[in-house]
């Protein structure tokens, strides 16, 4: 699963290399708007006639991508590192499948570590039921739920959450690296 995701991560990093140099922050509105110059991006990469990439850039998913990843100051992740710092490595690996596979495995390992930051936590295995356990008749029925107690617990939880400070994420915001300009990207 992680290796397939790493392959797609590499694909999109290659596809959108240099996209940050075609972003423009427009501040005439109360809230700044991020605009992506599609024509400049396609022109500098020599892909004006590429129907697939044109359709990708015109899609709603790409508009969401730009609005999420466009701000110059936000928490960075593995995709940002690939687009900004791994351009030369990805270019060098295009003709060398073993190196490409090695890089995909490294990315998959990083994805795994991102999702499982505490590898020392062991998950308990649920034991398999013994033979004939389905024939037992002494299984207790599901207990009845006390509606009054459920309401009390809900009210207690609401009272606690209203008095508690809002939860904040621990994402460290940083300046997003721009990476190479679009002109340095290949059209492959």
UniProtKB/TrEMBL annotation:
One GO BP: regulation of Rab protein signal transduction
Domain UDENN: 1-76
GO terms for cellular component: cytoplasmic vesicle
GO molecular function: guanyl-nucleotide exchange factor activity
Name assigned to this protein: MTMRD protein
Organism of origin: Eolophus roseicapilla (Galah cockatoo)
